Automatic annotation (TrEMBL):
Species for this entry: Acetonema longum DSM 6540
Coiled-coil intervals: 166-282
Protein name: Outer membrane chaperone Skp (OmpH)
Keyword list, A-Z: Coiled coil
Family matches, as PROSITE patterns: PROKAR_LIPOPROTEIN
Length: 319
């Protein structure tokens, strides 16, 4: 802060009146004494005050400088603390972001591994189910073939014996052969139909099993995702609380205290400045009254018919 920068306009502007006597009364007195002593008429009625010198020469000015330095130091420390707080906050945020990123990647890997394990489990279950159904179908088909054999075996055997043992004409052989082939075809068609029936039933049951497995896999995936999201959310809240707590503690211990201390010092400085100004006003007023000055101008460099009261004012304050 520049010296005297805190002085009011009254002290900084030479065009302002610092102190004014009762002008009309003085003019009337001068008119009544028009033929009086010329020396009295030529006595200065204007005072000049060097405000910067007056302020700097005041006994309490050193206290002003000390307080201002203390305020500057406190503000610098508060600014440094605020910078540290911001840096710490950014570091905490970066660390928290890295922590969350690492956790998210770990959770994703865990999710993929567990999903793969679940898929393998369901795939194996479907394979086992298909193998069991296929084995059951084979048993059913074998039983059905045995039933057909009991039904067709004698008929086929009798026809085969006739072809081998009897003396038959070509027409008779052809007729018996045709009948034999018809029985064999009928038997095979029934076996094929039964096999198709069992296969279709197995396919239908496996489709139902696959749908069940798919729903189970989707439900498992949703559960995993929910658990992952909840864990990430909990961790995010923990890290956010940690960041806010650390920054809040740092600000409370340094920045906030510094700001409060600076404000208290500023109030003390303002009161001290006002005290100095009041001393200058009171002393200048007394000098003006004692010397019969009409006005006191601040910081006027050249004014022939004026008296500089700065040193007298400082002496009056010190006394």
């Amino acid at each position: 802060m520049k010296e005297g920068a805190w002085m009011p306009a009254l002290f900084r502007n030479h065009r302002r009146l610092f102190y004014t006597m009762a002008g009309l009364a003085l003019l009337a007195l001068a008119a009544g004494c028009g033929q009086g002593d010329k020396a009295a008429q030529n006595a200065p009625v204007i005072g000049i005050l060097d405000t910067a010198k007056a302020i700097q020469g005041h006994p309490q000015y050193q206290q002003v400088q000390v307080l201002q330095r203390e305020i500057n130091t406190i503000q610098a420390q508060a600014k440094l603390a605020d910078t540290k707080a911001k840096q710490a906050y950014e570091q905490e945020k970066t660390a928290a972001a890295m922590d969350m990123d690492s956790l998210a990647k770990a959770m994703e890997q865990q999710y993929q591994a567990r999903m793969k394990g679940k898929q393998n489990e369901l795939t194996q279950r479907l394979k086992d189910k298909a193998a069991a159904l296929n084995n059951d179908n084979n048993i059913k088909l074998d039983a059905y073939v045995k039933e057909l054999d009991q039904e067709y075996q004698n008929q086929i055997f009798n026809l085969q014996v006739k072809l081998r043992t009897l003396q038959l004409t070509s027409e008779e052989q052809a007729s018996i052969q045709k009948e034999l082939e018809a029985l064999q075809t009928e038997r095979m068609n029934k076996i094929t139909a039964r096999q198709t029936e069992l296969s279709n039933a197995m396919k239908k049951e496996m489709e139902a099993e696959e749908k069940i497995a798919q729903k189970e896999l989707e439900a498992y995936s949703q559960t995993m995702q929910q658990e992952t999201n909840e864990r990430l959310e909990r961790r995010n809240k923990e890290l956010s609380a940690k960041v806010q707590s650390s920054i809040g503690s740092l600000q409370a211990s340094e920045t906030a205290q510094g700001v409060q201390s600076a404000e208290e010092k500023k109030k003390e400085l303002a009161a001290l400045k006002e005290s100095i100004l009041q001393d200058l006003r009171n002393t200048a007023a007394q000098i003006a009254q004692d010397r019969g000055l009409e006005i006191i101008l601040a910081d006027v460099k050249i004014y022939t018919n004026a008296v500089d009261i700065t040193d007298e004012l400082l002496q009056g304050i010190k006394d």
